[in-house]
Amino acid sequence: MLRSVFFLIIITSLPVFSQSKIKTPILKIDNVRDYDKEFEKLIEETNIVDQDIVFDEELVKMRIDSLNKITPLNLVYNKTVLQHIKFYLFQRKKQVSKLLALSDYYFPIFEQYLDKNNLPLELKYLPIIESSLNPGARSYAGAVGLWQFMYLTGKEYGLRINSYLDERKDVYKSTQAACDYLYKAHKVFNDWDLAISSYNAGRRNITKAIRRSGGLFNYWELRPFLPKETRNYIPSFIAALYVMNFAEEHGISKSSDILFKTHEVDSIHLNRPIKISHLAHVLQIDITLLEELNPMYRNKLIPFLNSEKFPIILPHNKAGVFLVNEDSIYHQITSMELIEKTEYPAFTDLEKIRYKVTKGDYLGKIAKKNKCSINDIMLWNDLKNHKIKVGQTLNIYRTVK
What we know:
By secondary structure, this protein is an alpha+beta fold. It is about 45% helix and about 10% strand. It folds into 3 domains: about 25-250, Orthogonal Bundle (Lysozyme); about 270-340, no CATH class; about 350-400, LysM domain (Membrane-bound Lytic Murein Transglycosylase D, Chain A), CATH 3.10.350.10.
């Protein structure tokens, strides 16, 4: 089976020319990604989770109650939560075993940021249901990374995603962005169930559900009014929290298949844009290793700006080779670029502006004025039709260089 290496690094945190050690987990590809479909299929087709299993439901309830006493979250035990717990324990036993091993690496990172932002540490379990602790995960809808940020949400919370960069794959920056989102969501709803649900559905959809329900703010009462996927979100979260705390009591231990490698690396800055493949060839570095050491670069290109320096992570022994032979290396790469007719895209980014609708405005006029499409404006603002009104504020995203 193919193997992928997921590197847990924040490139910009490494000092230039400073040797560091990076410990990386090596994982087999996880083919079980669509939790809801798998769960629903199991519930609809069979009761296998209840067959030939000795399962003390009262003990499970007591354990959840004990966890609930030490957290500001609302950890409810009910039949729905129980189904999700059984699904993890009996249908995803191997995956839970892997998650236990990976959590030793990721959870300290998550806890550091949650503590710094004064958020409940139990929120560290969210990436389990978002990405199965896979920093390279990409959903069918286009969400990326451990915390599964969509494009516009990532931009809104300061993650750069442009022609060169995708900081959703940066473990540290994406974790801070998730903290920012969750802090703001809790401030809006003053309820952790709703704040966590909004991480899945978006704050707007939670607000709509509250309005449709006639003003209900209790998640379990509001649940029938929520999007289908979000109805499973809190039960799955509570189940993941329970299973990660009591897996061993259910006979599940950490996977021994999760291997860890330690790489000694240096961070250097370049004085021109470069293709990672060119640099790998000149320095005789395995191209896959170099690409995986630098996951935030979308098209395997390192940009260059006069206003900002972008680092590249190299194996320690190769960083010294680069520094000693820098001029010669740039000359060789220039020759390779001429042969391949390499062109580097412009370093572009998006900025958000708030557009206030005035008398005489319509979507086509606003789109033309802001050099975008009507569909873009509808997507950015969750509009179901072309109707807008004077005084309404619209989010507009435009390209900047």
